[in-house]
Automatic annotation (TrEMBL):
This is Trafficking protein particle complex subunit 8. InterPro entries: Ig_TPPC8_1st, TRAPP_III_complex_Trs85. It comes from the Eukaryota. The gene is TRAPPC8. Residues 540-702 form the TPPC8 first Ig-like domain. One of its GO terms (cellular component) is TRAPPIII protein complex.
Length: 1160
C-alpha cells in the first residue's frame, strides 16, 4: 500500500519529504525460506509466462520509431508513458522477493498483531500472538533475520458480527494500549451489507498482483463486506502506522545502530579486524563452534549484519549517503570473507544507493556503474544467481529512467536480458528499444535492432501478438532504410499470421518480398508464396515489383496514324511490345497473360469503361534476372480511342496477378507553373484509334538491294488510294534528310545554298487513284540504312491521317578519300590542301574530277586528268587555296547565340549561304553538285553531327538554329565512275581553313556576350549556373578564335659566316592569317644554344588582313654548325574597331623553329 507525503529525518537531522511511501504486508509464514539456497529463476519465469499467457491476448501497436512531422508532440508524450507490459513484468519481479540470508532488504522490519474484538479472550489472544512472534520459526530457524523489529497492535472491530456499538471494542483498545504502549490502533471493517464492486475490485486486483512473496496462491474471496468507508479507514490506519510508528522506529533504529557500529568498528569507516569472522557463527554459539547449517551464514547480531541492516534502514529513511557508506563497508567485509553472494548483494545495494544519492542533486556528476557491474558479474558466477542479477539490472534501469539517463537504461536492459530468456528477455529488449528513442537525439537504428531481437524472443516463447507488434514496427522503419531487414521482418510477420490461420494476410506480407535478392533467398520467398497462395482466397493481387515494365511498353506504330496517334480498323491486329523483367534470381513462369483495354480520350486520359478486345500473350518463362521484350498481337472490336489499361497473368501457375500499365507522359514545361511543379502530360504510347471506316493509302517502294557509298540512288514510291474516300490534301516527307523527293538536276551548284525542305505536297488522290513519286538518295555512310517515307493526308469528313513505309538497304564502300590542310611555306599567308583517294572496292574505279565548295575559299585553277584506280591503288592531288571575301560571316551564329542568352523565345532561322564552287577535271552532268537540295541535305546531315559533338553542352534547339556551314569550311567532292558506268560522288565535309571569318562587329558582340556575368531572364539560380558554364565552354571553342592569328616566316636554310662568331642580318616576315588588320608588338627571345638577337629586338607595327610585312633583324651566331631554332618570340596582337578601340587581344609566346646550317 502507498501513503502520500511522508516526512522523515536522516542521521544528519535533515528533513526530507517522501511523496509516496510504499509498504507491503505479508503473512509471517511467508518469510520462511526453504533453505539457505537462492530461489531459482525458473519460478519467476513460469509466473511471468502464465501471467502473459492469460492476460496479453491483444495489445496496442507500438509507436513508430520515426514520427511524422505533425505528430511529433503527441508521439513524444506517448513515448514517455510507461509500457504496460513491462510495468506488469516489473511488478511481478519486484514483488517476487524470496527470503534469503544475504538479501536483508527482503527481511521484515515491522509486524502487525491484529485481534478481532469479537474474540472471546482478546487480551490472551494478543499475548499468544506476541509469544508466537517471538518464538516463530522465522527467527528461531533463521538466525540471520533480525528479531528486534517494530510490533504494532491492532484491534479490529467487525461490524458484521458486533454491530455499530463500539463500546466493547474501545474498552479493549484502551486495555491493549495500557499493556503494549502507544503502537496500538483500532479499525472497524465489514460495515457493508453486501459486496461493494469498487472495494471488491480494489482488493482483488491487489491480491492478484501480489498474492505471495514467492509464488501465486488462490485464496478465499476478499472484501466481501467492506464498504468505501471501511477502505478509507484502513488507508487512514496505514498512514497512521507509517507516520506515528514505522517512521519513528526507523529513525531510532538508524541512530542506535549508527552509534553501536561506530563504537564497534572504531568509526564508521574504520575496520575491526576479524569482526565479521568472529560473528560468522549461529546465534548463541562461541568462536570455537561450527555452523549449524550446511553453509555459513552471518547471524543478525554480527557486526557485518548490523552494518548491512543500517544501510537498509538508511535507504528507508532516504539517507542515501549513510547507506552508501554502510554498503561499502559491508561489501569489503564480505569480500574479505569470500562470501560471494553476500558481497554481490551488498555491491548491488551500493550501486543503487549511489544512484539514489545522485538523483537528489541532478547537477552533480553521475556515479560510475562499477558497483552494479561488479554485482552482476558476481551473481552470474554463482548457482541460481541469475534472478538477483536480473532484479539488480531492472532496478538500476528503473532508477536511471527516472533520471532520464536513457543510454544507460538501454545498457542495463541489455545486460538484464543476458540473465534470462523467453518472454522476460523480450520485454527487456523492447524496453531498451524504447530507451534509445527517449534519448535527446533518438538512436533509431539501435532502437530498431533491439526491436527485432525482442520480436525474435517473443516468437520463440509463443507470444505471437507481441512478436507481430514488434515486427510490424521494425518493418515500418526498415522499409526505406534496409531492404534485407525489411524483408526479414515481413517474412516473420507472414509466418506468424499464417500459423494463426490468416492466410490472406500472410500472403499480403509475402508479396513485397518479390523484388530480387540472392538466389537462395529468392527461392525461399517464392516457395513460401506458392505454398500460401494455394490456400488463399482466389483473387488478383498486385506485385510491388512488377514483372512487366509499363514505362517501356508501347504500341508499335502501324503503317497508319490518326491525329498523331496509331490508327487501325476494326478487327485489324495491332502489335504491342511488352518489356518483361525477372527481378528474382530464380526461374519463373508467366502463364495466362492477357492485355486489357479501356476507353480513352484523345489526349490519352484513360476512362473506366472497358473495351472489348482479344489480346492474348503466349506463356513466358523468364530465366534468373532476365530482361527481354515480347511482341504480341491484339484485336479491338470497339471503335474510338482505346488504351492498354492493365495486364493479368499467373505467376508460377499459382499466384494470380493484376498489373496496371498506367504511366506518365513527358514532363510539361510550357508555363511557369509547370516548370515550378512536376507536371506531366498524359501518356500516349499505349493509346490507339480504332475506326470503322477511314481513308487508306498504300505505299509501294522500289529500291535496289545494295548500294555504294557516294552513289546517287533513284528510288520510286507509288502511292495508291485503296479506300472509297477521296483524299483532298496530302504531303510526304522522307528520312534520312539526304534523300529528297522531286529532285531535278541543274547545270551547276547555285551560288547560294538555301535550307533544304524535307516535306513535299502530293496531288489530290481520288478513290482508287495512284501517283508515282521519284526520290534521290545520296549514300554517305556504309552499313545498314533505313529509308522512311511519311505521308500525311486528310479529308474534309474524317480528319487527318498518316501512313509510313520503310526499307532496309545495305551500303558498301567503294572510294576512301581524306585530306589535310596546312599553311604554305612562303612569306605571304596561303594554304595547301593535300587530297588522298584510294580504291577500297573490288573493281577498278576512274576518278574523273574533284570539286571544292566553300563560302570563303577558292582554289587556284589547274588541270586534272582522269585517274584509273585498280583495287588498292591510291591517287594524290595538291591544291592551293586562296580567300575570296564575301558578306557571309559568323553573323548568323552570333545572332542565334545572342537570342538564346538574352532569353528570347524565338530564334532566327538559318539564312541562305553564298558559296564558291571550284572544279578540277570532268564533272558529270548528274553529279551531286547539280542537285542543290540533295547536296544541302547531305551537307546538313554531316554538319548536325559535328555540331552536336562540338556543342553538346548547348540545348538541341540552339544547335538546330546554327547554320549548316561555317565561312571557313570547305567541302571536297570526288567524282568517280566504276567499270559498269555507275557514277558516284564521295563527299568530304568539314575542312576548316584559317582563322574564323567574322567581322569586327561580330567579334565585339561575341566577346561581350561570352564575358557577360549577369544572365537575363534567368528564372532559377540553376539556370544561371548552367548558362555560365555554357559561356565558359563557348569561350574556349572554335568560335572564339583563341589561337594567335600571327606567325613568323624566316626564309633561311644556311648562313655563310665570314668570321666566327658572326652577326647575320636577316628578314623576318610577320604573316597575318586573319581577315582583319592587326596591331602587334613582337619581342625576340634568344636561344639557349648560343643564338642571340642583337639590335632592336622589340618590333611594333600593323599587318593587313591575309598579308605579311617584313621585319629587319640581326642574329648572333657563335660558331659554325647545325642549329635547330632561332630561339622564340613573344607577341601581343590587338584587333581594333573603326574607332580605334580594342576588340580582342591575343598574347602568346612561340618557339621559332628554323633549322639551318652555319659554315665558314
Amino acid at each position: 500500500m502507498t501513503t502520500d507525503i511522508v516526512t522523515v529525518r536522516t542521521s544528519q537531522l535533515e528533513q526530507r519529504m517522501i511523496p509516496r511511501f510504499h509498504v507491503r504486508f505479508d503473512m509471517l509464514d511467508d518469510f520462511l525460506s526453504l533453505g539457505n539456497e537462492p530461489v531459482p529463476i525458473d519460478k519467476l519465469l513460469d509466473t511471468v509466462q502464465r501471467f502473459f499467457h492469460d492476460e496479453i491476448q491483444d495489445c496496442d501497436p507500438l509507436l513508430p520509431l520515426v514520427p511524422a512531422e505533425n505528430e511529433y508532440q503527441a508521439w513524444n508524450e506517448k513515448l514517455h508513458q510507461q509500457n504496460e507490459s513491462f510495468s506488469c513484468f516489473a511488478s511481478i519481479l519486484f514483488d517476487y522477493r524470496p527470503i534469503s540470508s544475504f538479501d536483508t532488504m527482503s527481511h521484515p522490519c515491522a509486524m502487525v498483531l491484529a485481534v478481532s474484538s469479537n474474540n472471546p479472550d482478546p487480551l490472551n489472544a494478543f499475548a499468544r500472538l506476541y509469544e508466537q512472534s517471538k518464538k516463530s520459526d522465522v527467527f528461531a530457524k533463521q538466525p540471520f533475520v533480525e528479531s528486534n523489529i517494530l510490533r504494532c497492535y491492532l484491534v479490529v472491530h467487525d461490524t458484521a458480527a458486533l454491530g455499530t456499538d463500539m463500546s466493547r471494542s474501545m474498552g479493549l483498545f484502551e486495555e491493549v494500549r495500557r499493556t503494549y504502549g502507544l503502537d496500538c490502533a483500532i479499525v472497524h471493517v465489514n460495515s457493508a451489507s453486501e459486496p461493494v464492486p469498487e472495494v471488491h475490485a480494489l482488493y482483488t486486483n491487489n491480491a492478484q498482483k501480489v498474492p505471495s512473496r514467492v509464488c501465486a496462491k488462490e485464496g478465499a474471496p476478499l472484501a466481501q463486506r467492506m464498504s468505501l468507508q471501511d477502505a478509507q479507514r484502513v488507508q487512514s490506519y496505514v498512514r497512521e502506522l507509517i507516520t506515528k510508528s514505522l517512521v519513528p522506529f526507523l529513525e531510532r533504529s538508524v541512530q542506535h545502530l549508527g552509534e553501536h557500529i561506530s563504537s564497534q568498528r572504531l568509526g564508521l569507516t574504520g575496520r575491526l579486524l576479524g569482526a565479521s569472522r568472529k560473528w560468522l557463527l549461529p546465534r548463541g554459539s562461541t568462536g570455537s563452534s561450527t555452523s549449524r547449517l550446511n553453509h555459513d551464514i552471518y547471524p543478525a547480531n554480527s557486526i557485518v549484519s548490523q552494518t548491512r541492516r543500517l544501510g537498509d534502514l538508511a535507504i528507508h529513511v532516504r539517507d542515501y549517503r549513510l547507506a552508501s557508506t554502510m554498503y561499502d563497508a559491508a561489501y569489503r567485509d564480505y569480500e574479505e570473507d569470500q562470501a560471494a553472494m553476500y558481497s554481490a548483494c551488498a555491491s548491488e545495494m551500493l550501486g543503487l544507493a549511489q544512484m539514489l544519492h545522485a538523483s537528489l542533486s541532478r547537477k552533480g556528476p553521475m556515479p560510475p556503474p562499477s558497483a552494479y557491474l561488479r554485482a552482476c558479474d558476481e551473481y552470474v558466477k554463482l548457482r541460481t544467481g541469475e534472478f538477483y542479477a536480473l532484479r539488480a539490472s531492472v532496478l538500476y534501469a528503473a532508477l536511471l529512467n527516472g533520471m532520464q539517463k536513457y543510454d544507460m537504461v538501454a545498457m542495463a536492459s541489455f545486460r538484464a536480458a543476458q540473465f534470462t530468456d523467453e518472454i522476460v528477455r523480450a520485454l527487456l529488449l523492447e524496453q531498451a528499444s524504447m530507451a534509445y528513442l527517449r534519448m535527446e537525439r533518438p538512436h533509431t537504428r539501435r532502437s530498431a535492432a533491439s526491436l527485432l531481437q525482442a520480436a525474435s524472443q517473443y516468437e520463440a516463447c509463443g507470444q505471437k501478438h507481441l512478436a507481430l507488434r514488434c515486427y510490424t514496427c521494425a518493418a515500418n522503419y526498415y522499409k526505406t532504410r534496409c531492404t534485407y531487414l525489411y524483408d526479414h521482418a515481413l517474412f516473420k510477420m507472414a509466418f506468424l499470421v499464417h500459423n494463426s490461420g490468416r492466410i490472406d494476410e500472410a500472403l499480403s506480407y509475402l508479396l513485397p518480398l518479390l523484388h530480387g535478392s540472392l538466389p537462395p533467398i529468392d527461392e525461399l520467398h517464392l516457395h513460401a508464396i506458392e505454398s500460401v497462395a494455394k490456400y488463399a482466397h482466389e483473387h488478383r493481387v498486385t506485385l510491388p515489383s512488377p514483372f512487366i515494365v509499363a514505362e517501356r511498353c508501347c504500341i508499335l506504330r502501324p503503317s497508319s496514324s490518326y491525329n498523331d496517334n496509331p490508327c487501325i480498323s476494326l478487327n485489324e491486329p495491332c502489335r504491342i511490345e511488352l518489356f518483361l523483367v525477372n527481378p528474382l534470381g530464380v526461374r519463373v513462369s508467366l502463364t495466362d497473360v492477357r492485355l486489357h483495354f479501356s476507353r480513352a480520350q484523345r489526349d490519352g486520359t484513360a476512362l473506366s469503361s472497358p473495351v472489348e478486345a482479344d489480346a492474348p500473350v503466349q506463356d513466358v518463362i523468364l530465366e534468373p534476372n532476365e530482361r527481354r521484350s515480347v511482341v504480341c498481337s491484339a484485336r479491338i472490336f470497339t471503335d474510338g480511342y482505346a488504351r492498354v489499361s492493365h495486364a493479368t497473368y499467373t505467376l508460377s501457375r499459382v499466384l494470380h496477378v493484376h498489373q496496371s500499365l498506367q504511366k506518365l507522359g513527358p514532363r510539361l514545361q510550357t508555363t511557369v507553373e509547370q516548370r515550378r511543379s512536376r507536371t506531366y502530360a498524359h501518356d500516349k504510347s499505349l493509346l490507339i484509334w480504332v475506326s470503322k471506316d477511314m481513308p487508306c493509302l498504300e505505299l509501294e517502294v522500289t529500291t535496289p538491294a545494295r548500294v555504294t557509298i557516294g552513289e546517287i540512288v533513284s528510288v520510286s514510291v507509288r502511292i495508291t488510294n485503296t479506300s472509297s474516300i477521296d483524299i483532298e490534301s496530302a504531303s510526304m516527307s522522307t528520312s534520312p534528310c539526304n534523300m529528297q523527293a522531286f529532285s531535278s538536276p541543274t547545270e551547276s551548284l547555285p551560288s547560294i545554298l538555301a535550307p533544304s525542305t524535307s516535306e513535299h505536297a502530293l496531288p489530290k488522290l481520288t478513290a482508287g487513284a495512284h501517283c508515282d513519286i521519284p526520290c534521290l538518295w545520296h549514300v554517305t555512310d556504309s552499313g545498314s540504312h533505313t529509308l522512311t517515307w511519311h505521308v500525311k493526308y486528310a479529308t474534309s469528313t474524317h480528319g487527318s491521317f498518316e501512313k509510313r513505309a520503310s526499307r532496309q538497304i545495305q551500303a558498301q564502300a567503294m572510294m576512301n578519300a581524306s585530306f589535310h590542310i596546312k599553311l604554305a611555306d612562303q612569306a605571304q599567308p596561303a594554304y595547301m590542301l593535300a587530297l588522298h583517294v584510294s580504291n577500297v572496292g573490288s573493281k577498278a574505279v576512274t576518278c574523273t574530277g574533284i570539286s571544292f565548295v566553300s563560302p570563303l575559299w577558292t582554289t587556284v585553277e589547274g588541270s586534272m586528268q582522269p585517274a584509273l584506280l585498280a583495287p588498292g591503288d591510291t591517287f594524290a592531288s595538291l591544291v592551293r587555296l586562296q580567300p575570296s571575301p564575301s558578306n557571309y560571316t559568323l553573323a548568323s551564329t552570333v545572332r542565334a547565340l545572342h537570342a538564346f542568352f538574352d532569353g528570347s523565345a524565338s530564334l532566327p532561322s538559318p539564312a541562305p549561304i553564298p558559296v564558291h564552287v571550284s572544279q578540277h577535271g570532268e564533272t558529270p552532268a548528274a553529279c551531286l553538285l547539280h542537285y542543290a537540295s540533295l547536296y544541302t541535305a547531305s551537307r546538313s546531315a554531316w554538319a548536325r553531327q559535328r555540331q552536336i559533338s562540338e556543342f553538346d553542352y548547348l540545348p538541341p534547339h540552339i544547335v538546330r538554329a546554327l547554320p549548316c556551314m561555317d565561312p571557313n569550311d570547305i567541302d571536297v567532292t570526288v567524282h568517280w565512275r566504276d567499270e559498269n558506268g555507275n557514277l558516284g560522288d564521295t563527299l568530304l565535309c568539314g575542312g576548316r581553313v584559317g582563322v574564323q571569318y567574322a567581322s569586327v562587329d561580330d567579334m565585339a558582340i561575341l566577346n561581350i556576350l561570352l564575358k557577360s556575368d549577369t544572365p537575363q531572364r534567368a528564372m532559377y539560380e540553376e539556370t544561371a549556373r548552367e548558362r555560365a558554364i555554357m559561356k565558359g565552354r563557348l569561350s574556349k571553342s572554335i568560335l572564339a578564335n583563341n589561337v594567335l592569328p600571327l606567325s613568323i616566316y624566316v626564309p633561311l636554310n644556311a648562313i655563310h659566316m665570314e668570321t666566327a662568331p658572326f652577326v647575320c642580318p636577316m628578314t623576318l616576315h610577320v604573316r597575318n592569317e586573319a581577315p582583319w588588320p592587326l596591331h602587334f608588338t613582337i619581342e625576340m627571345v634568344s636561344s639557349n644554344t648560343g643564338i642571340a638577337w642583337l639590335g632592336n629586338i622589340v618590333h611594333k607595327g600593323t599587318v593587313p588582313a591575309w598579308s605579311s610585312i617584313p621585319l629587319r633583324a640581326c642574329v648572333f651566331v657563335p660558331k659554325p654548325g647545325m642549329y635547330e631554332d632561332l630561339g622564340a618570340w613573344r607577341c601581343s596582337a590587338t584587333l581594333q574597331d573603326n574607332h580605334g578601340r580594342p576588340v580582342r587581344v591575343w598574347t602568346d609566346a612561340c618557339a621559332l623553329k628554323v633549322p639551318f646550317k652555319a659554315f665558314l
